[in-house]
Design a protein that fits this description.
single chain, about 220 residues, mainly alpha, 8 helices, about 0% strand, transmembrane, transport, Probable membrane transporter protein, TSUP, transmembrane helix
């Protein structure tokens, strides 16, 4: 239900905001969220060897963030059809069971995309090129959905979350990097900054790993 107002707002913003600007902002948000959760679900348990015994409490801040992602996802999906990553972030936190997550997302996309299909068809957004792409893409999407359901049966929740956040990282970073108006200087500064940040992060991770391994060996 929280998506619905966002979609209506998004229909208006479709003609008011630059798609490139929206993609940069959403790409940055999704990339940061994916990186944070990859640290939580991949780096901490597999590299640092740090296991959280208790589930973290669902605080007010977390709920505000979660519902904010859902509303914003509805807005950008209604405007540019790129709200999927943000809506996925909400659903991952709200729906813990992987099968329920799949079913929830499937029905959500049916509703959202049916609405967008009708609205954009009315606005003349359909072209021969788009129709041709749909003819090719829909059967492939069906095949992917079939194999995805089979694969889902073979993995546990932790593996499922790791895969989803890797996919979100790829989608978010691609959306961000492919829409930034790069210059030679900005590219160089970004590369240098990224190397420095990653080096510091790796140093901190392996330092914590060493401490945790020593604790285990001392037991």
């Amino acid at each position: 239900m929280l998506c619905a107002p966002g979609i209506l707002i998004g229909q208006y913003l479709f003609y008011q905001i630059s798609p490139q600007t929206a993609k940069v902002l959403i790409g940055a948000m999704v990339t940061v969220i994916a990186l944070m959760n990859l640290h939580k679900y991949v780096v901490k348990p597999l590299v640092i060897k740090e296991i959280e015994e208790n589930e973290v409490a669902d605080t007010l801040v977390k709920r505000i963030f979660r519902y904010g992602c859902l509303i914003l996802g509805g807005i950008v999906h209604g405007a540019f059809n790129i709200g999927g990553p943000l809506i996925t972030v909400y659903t991952l936190e709200a729906v813990k069971d992987k099968k329920k997550f799949r079913n929830t997302m499937t029905m959500l996309w049916v509703v959202l995309n049916s609405w967008n299909l009708f609205n954009q068809h009315q606005n003349g957004a359909f072209t021969n090129e788009l129709n041709s792409a749909l003819l090719v893409g829909l059967p492939l999407a069906g095949i992917g959905f079939f194999f995805g359901m089979r694969f889902l049966e073979k993995i546990n929740r932790e593996q499922f979350l790791r895969i989803v956040y890797v996919v979100l990282l790829i989608i978010g970073s691609n959306m961000l990097l492919s829409n930034i108006p790069w210059t030679a200087d900005s590219k160089m500064m970004t590369i240098v900054g990224t190397v420095i940040v990653l080096s510091g992060y790796a140093f901190n991770v392996f330092k914590k790993r060493k401490v945790n391994i020593e604790k285990v060996q001392a037991l």
